[in-house]
Amino acid sequence: MERFLDRFKQNRKLAIRMVSPGFGHLSSQVVSAFGPTHRNAHYFFLLMLQGSARHVIDLQPYDVGNNELLFILPNQIHELPKAKRGGDYFKIGFDENCLALLPRQYPFLVNPLNSQKIHLTPAAVARLKPIAEILLGLLSTMDGDPELIVAHLNSLLTEINTAYFAADKSPADSKLSKYIAFKVFVENNLTDHPKVEAIAEELALNPNSLYTIVKHYSGQSPKEFMTHRLILEARRRLYYGESTSVKELAFELGFSDPDYFSRLFKKVTGQTVAAFFQDLSSNE
What we know:
The structure is a single chain. This protein is an alpha+beta fold. It has twelve helices and eight strands. It has helices at 4-8, 28-34, 96-100, 122-138, 146-164, 174-188, 196-202, 207-218, 222-239, 246-252, 258-269, 273-282, and strands at residues 16-19, 37-39, 43-57, 60-64, 68-72, 77-79, 84-94, 117-119. Helix 4 runs antiparallel to helix 5 (146-164), helix 6 (174-188) crosses helix 8 and helix 10 packs across helix 11 (258-269). The radius of gyration is 20 Å and the shape is globular. The relative contact order is 0.10. The model has no long low-confidence stretch (mean pLDDT 90).
């Protein structure tokens, strides 16, 4: 998947690709070569205007319907829908290098509210659709102007960012900013198993304040959040066959004691690593 956008990008200078009902579809041979399940190496967005589809992200199913948007982040496990109904949509994928060219940051991309599906208002859809159509036109030739593509991608992500936080009255307040910083720190230091006190110090907070913020936005304590994030990574690697043994997986995730890791996995998921792996095998 690392080479997918490099191989199938629609612009000479940008690793970006769009698909709509009548545009951008790859041959069935190419699609089958990548398989229905893969670890995303890029950002992926599905803007469903009319129709429905079920995508699975990190083993969690998401039913996407009319006027809804689904986004998937790099390193997440994405299972494509087995069946699709209806048909007016836009799909867009782009890599980190493309994102780095944009003029601002988009807080929703760290998914602070833990919701990868957004229900869009009619007004938001009315603004997003023409932006997507312009991007589609710019990507209809490999020589589309990269500056124009970046400008319209910025508009698209700005609209999505606003829609993501629509239910939050203060999306830019300091508490949410601290929570976003907490999630970023955890992602960057996940296998180091950072102490809550060290994270609080890094974010210029006391541990009690960090606890209150993380609990408010995630429903978990900072320690619980990090534990669940580690086990999610374990499930991803097991699902995608990236580790060959419990011991290897435990060490990869920073656990010095594989038995402790196994107990923690069962506590979080309700089943042993062996049972989880057996369930995966029986579903193949």
